[in-house]
């Protein structure tokens, strides 16, 4: 006898197969129609080159526009789907095939207004709804189908938005069509100054334009700054171009902008709840847009250098390797089809620039004022990600992956797997804990490791490591709401990377709890540990700092880049059980895991290093405007800490200053270190936290949290920036290495 659950599973399996059989039959009919169109195309093309052509080559291209490409897309989909349906089983996946099909159709339809393919995507969207209805949420195909549905719906939404008549291409000489492939707002470096540009990639050229200010109710207009024919465009490394320093805003300035943004967002929320007049709201929104624009201009620091063979070079500043690779890929792919150089007349350039308003796909900057009121503000908390394995590689390589997430609209590299040596099927199975601050997207990049150190290009942050694939996934709150791991596949350039994700919101991740193992060190009061060890600074702190000083001071992103979670847990257990081999274990582990263990120790203290009692006073002291009063207040508070807390903090403080001395190599400034350690050392226990909770939004937290975090960062940064801390001799002597430490 079958249970009801087993019967439901069988029924769902059968329903999925029935739905897919229907889509196979539909695809077969569509392919036969496309084949019928292709039949006369070949003889017509052959006749077009004779003295008596039936149709010209241009007419043939117009009549049969994109038919061969559509045929290839649907043929590949059909050929991949058919064997899977024929070998149908409980574990069979099809979501990846729908993902692969929608993207190329989107590119064709977006630039060509091909409405029949749009109809096919509409049908696929309905099919995906049916498949999801009959697929258990625990099935490995479920997240793939969800993602395919999201892509399809986004595509259809963009088509609907563009249903008003607008051009996707413009006619140029000899009846050819110049089509828009990609456009985006970017930051250009011009004579040492950052300028906001709108960049348009057409089928034959790259155009950089500036959006003119609207005056007197006039419609928006673009002003052309420069263009490069793709046949003349090359990418330069820092070594090939003239040395040009990239002006960077100090981290403190960027942090101050973020504080203003968070504060203004909170004010806008209060105004909205109070239903106050629109004038006050408009003033706040204007100020918010100004600060967000300032952040967008000053945050990107990764150069993308483009060069015109006829002379001039240009530099764009981008926030992440993902975006830089995206632009390079699409340009290089299109360059394979561009052979002739050309120049535009001033009239042609003006016409092209004018067409950008109708052709653009990115209409607005990513500012709060341009978003819907109910749009998600992103996730705040911790995302655990397991990078399992990769498949689809055609040759054995040395491979590793990096993970990026966004915060305030800027993407930051958060984690890196180890290099898996010479294989076509790397199996990392590494877990990382990534802190999210209003994050909406997780990006994953797969690199081939290069061991040729002579070719490292440190100025660009771009080594000879080659990007083999890249992909991203939306951090969807409903999908991440549960406590279970969500397994998914990220497809990228023929490679598939399997990952699992689990999210813990701020309200749960912030709890400081006492350990149930009083003889351990994690979750145990620092005074109890130092008393038991007869030391001034806990053994775990001394061991971790010693190992990092030995081999981690030049590690890029030390303390910022996540260590492997399983390694961190192994070290945690070793320290908790007083394992005598802990120093040997540490010497064999990645230095980021040791840094992660130290951060975890401070995060799990039942009371923060700066204590619950003094935390409000530190928060108040850092807000003082009078510098003399602030110094007096902050130093007095610091010296009021219990001796184990004070000595441990001073010991850590000296170490962090030494790390920052290597900033040119490890990219960790005092501010970066304060950002990492501030909340860890100051965040109070849950009962003392000022963080509001909203039961209707259990996994998103607003800007009041950001303001509190930034206050904690500022407190630590204040002490890091002090040249010396005048402490009593007895306490200062305590931090020197001796038999008592």
UniProtKB/TrEMBL annotation:
It holds the Pfam family PH_19. It comes from the Eukaryota. Residues 179-336 form the PH domain. SUPFAM superfamilies: C2 domain (Calcium/lipid-binding domain, CaLB), DBL homology domain (DH-domain), GTPase activation domain, GAP, PH domain-like. Residues 363-489 form the C2 domain. SMART domains: C2 (SM00239), PH (SM00233), RhoGAP (SM00324), RhoGEF (SM00325). Keywords: Cell projection, GTPase activation, Guanine-nucleotide releasing factor, Synapse. PROSITE patterns: C2 (PS50004), DH_2 (PS50010), PH_DOMAIN (PS50003), RHOGAP (PS50238). GO terms for biological process: signal transduction. Residues 524-718 form the Rho-GAP domain. GO terms for cellular component: axon; dendritic spine; membrane. The keyword Disulfide bond does not apply. Coiled coil: none annotated. Residues 15-100, 111-162 form the DH domain. One of its GO terms (molecular function) is GTPase activator activity. It is found in: Cell projection, Axon; Cell projection, Dendritic spine. PANTHER family: BREAKPOINT CLUSTER REGION PROTEIN, BREAKPOINT CLUSTER REGION PROTEIN BCR. This is BCR activator of RhoGEF and GTPase. It comes from Cyprinus carpio.
């Amino acid at each position: 006898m079958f249970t009801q659950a087993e019967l439901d599973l069988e029924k769902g399996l059968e329903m999925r197969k029935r739905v897919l059989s229907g889509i196979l039959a539909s695809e077969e009919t569509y392919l036969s129609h496309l084949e019928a169109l292709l039949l006369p195309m070949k003889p017509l093309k052959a006749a077009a080159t004779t003295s008596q052509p039936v149709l010209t080559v241009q007419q043939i291209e117009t009549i049969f526009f994109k038919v061969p490409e559509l045929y290839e897309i649907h043929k590949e989909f059909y050929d991949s789907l058919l064997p899977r349906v024929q070998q149908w089983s409980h574990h069979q996946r099809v979501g990846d095939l729908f993902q692969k099909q929608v993207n190329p159709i989107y590119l064709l339809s977006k630039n060509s207004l091909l409405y029949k393919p749009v109809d096919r995507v509409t049908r696929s969207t309905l099919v995906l709804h049916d498949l999801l209805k009959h697929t258990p949420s625990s099935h490995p195909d479920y997240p793939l189908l969800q993602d395919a549905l999201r892509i399809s719906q986004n595509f259809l939404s963009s088509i609907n938005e563009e249903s008003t008549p607008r051009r996707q291409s413009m006619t140029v000489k000899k009846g050819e069509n110049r089509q828009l492939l990609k456009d985006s707002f970017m930051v250009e470096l011009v004579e040492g100054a950052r300028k906001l540009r709108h960049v348009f990639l057409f089928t034959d050229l790259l155009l950089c334009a500036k959006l003119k200010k609207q005056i007197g109710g006039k419609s928006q207009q673009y002003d052309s700054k420069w263009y490069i024919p793709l046949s003349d465009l090359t990418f330069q490394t820092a070594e090939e171009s003239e040395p040009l320093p990239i002006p960077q805003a100090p981290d403190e300035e960027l942090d101050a902008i973020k504080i203003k943004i968070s504060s203004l967002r909170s004010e806008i929320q209060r105004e909205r709840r109070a239903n106050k007049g629109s004038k006050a709201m408009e003033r706040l929104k204007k100020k918010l847009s100004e600060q967000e624009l300032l952040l967008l201009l000053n945050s990107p620091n990764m150069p993308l250098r483009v060069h015109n063979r006829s002379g001039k070079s240009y530099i764009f500043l981008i926030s992440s390797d993902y975006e830089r690779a995206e632009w390079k890929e699409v340009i290089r792919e299109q360059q394979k089809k561009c052979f002739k150089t050309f120049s535009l007349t001033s009239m042609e350039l003006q016409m092209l620039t004018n067409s950008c308003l109708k052709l653009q796909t990115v209409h607005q900057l990513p500012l709060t004022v341009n978003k819907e009121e109910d749009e998600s503000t992103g996730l705040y908390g911790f995302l655990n990600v397991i990078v399992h394995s990769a498949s689809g590689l055609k040759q054995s390589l040395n491979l590793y992956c990096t993970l990026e997430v966004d915060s305030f609209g800027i993407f930051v590299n958060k984690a890196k797997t180890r290099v898996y040596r010479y294989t076509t099927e790397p199996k990392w199975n590494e877990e990382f804990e990534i802190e999210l601050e209003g994050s909406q997207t997780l990006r994953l990049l797969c690199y081939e490791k290069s061991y040729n150190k002579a070719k490292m290009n440190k100025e660009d942050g771009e080594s000879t490591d080659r990007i083999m694939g890249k992909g991203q996934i939306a951090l969807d709150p409903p999908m991440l709401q549960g406590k279970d791991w969500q397994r998914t596949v990220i497809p990228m350039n023929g490679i598939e990377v399997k990952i699992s994700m689990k999210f813990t919101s701020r309200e749960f991740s912030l709890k400081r709890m006492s350990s149930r193992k009083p003889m351990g060190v994690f979750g145990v009061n620092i005074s109890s540990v130092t008393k038991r060890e007869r030391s001034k600074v806990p053994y775990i702190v001394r061991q971790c700092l010693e190992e990092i000083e030995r081999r981690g001071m030049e590690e890029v992103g030390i303390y910022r880049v996540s260590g492997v979670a399983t390694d961190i847990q192994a070290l945690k257990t070793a320290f908790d059980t007083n394992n005598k081999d802990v120093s040997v274990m540490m010497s064999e582990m990645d230095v980021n895991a040791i840094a992660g263990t130290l951060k975890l120790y401070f995060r799990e203290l039942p009371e923060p290093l700066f204590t619950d009692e003094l935390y409000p006073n530190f928060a108040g002291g850092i807000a003082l405007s009078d510098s003399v009063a602030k110094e007096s207040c902050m130093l007095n508070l610091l010296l009021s800490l219990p001796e184990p807390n004070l000595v441990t903090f001073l010991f850590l403080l000296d170490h962090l200053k030494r790390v920052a001395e290597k900033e040119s190599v490890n990219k960790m400034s005092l501010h970066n270190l304060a950002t990492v350690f501030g909340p860890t050392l100051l965040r109070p226990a849950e009962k003392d936290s000022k963080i509001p909770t909203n039961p209707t939004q259990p996994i998103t937290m607003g800007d009041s949290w950001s303001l509190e975090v930034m206050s904690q960062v500022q407190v630590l940064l204040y002490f890091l920036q002090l040249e010396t801390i005048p402490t009593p001799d007895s306490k200062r002597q305590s931090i020197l290495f001796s038999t008592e430490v």
